[in-house]
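Summary for the lay section of the report: proteins are chains of building blocks that fold into shapes. Here we show the chain for 3'(2'),5'-bisphosphate nucleotidase CysQ and then a coded description of the shape we predicted for it.
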Amino acid sequence: MSAADLDDAALAASLAAEAGRLLMAVRASGMFEGKALGKAGDATANQFLCHALRHLRPDDGLLSEEEKDNPARLAKSRVWIVDPVDGTREYGEARADWAVHVALAVDGVAVTGAVALPGLDVGVVLRSDQLQPLVPLPDRPRFLVSRTRPAREAEAVAATLGGELVPMGSAGAKAMAVVRGEAEVYLHSGGQYEWDSCAPVAVAAAHGLHCSRIDGSPLVYNQADTYMPDLLICRAEWAERVLAEVARLPANA
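The coded shape description reads as follows.
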């Protein structure tokens, strides 16, 4: 089957996987390191993803972190939202906790997505159309936080609920850690953009996880302003308690 014949979910997964292979090849070439490696990887993956989507889904809109925004997407019902390298710093440092995001938002909802984790294994792609069983919950929730800037809300709620903080790199790696059973809560309040969460939310929601803003309101994509202030992705069993604890926090918590 050619790429042109793939349905949206299979296309997202195929593109994310191939972008991951390209990124690993760029890193293995030895031509770049550090920030230069991050820039080279971003450029290579972005060129591949955007060219493929414009060719294979020419009637859809497109939003990429690495492309100048085209406001024409706002008039589209279907918009592809991609992050060629989510976690450029981690990629440039040759760490494993980075990702490739490919998602399709329909009428503002993240409905289809794929998140590749090439740093773990070039074949690891989590998809919204191929579900894996969720693992049993541990007694204490594990909260995923930034390696360098842990969200104060996450620290506060974890302390109240007797939870454990788990530092990790990119947003996609964190969200997929919840899907994979490596943690239960990803609570982020430091600001992101649509491409940081669209694919992870599509995959997480398909697996039955709770996905929302930290006040419980919906995540809406394909907006004129692509900034998204906060995010909660967690096991559904913890959602009510986490949201309640966030609501109790003082404004400067």
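Put simply, here is one thing we learned. The chain is about 35% helix and 25% strand.
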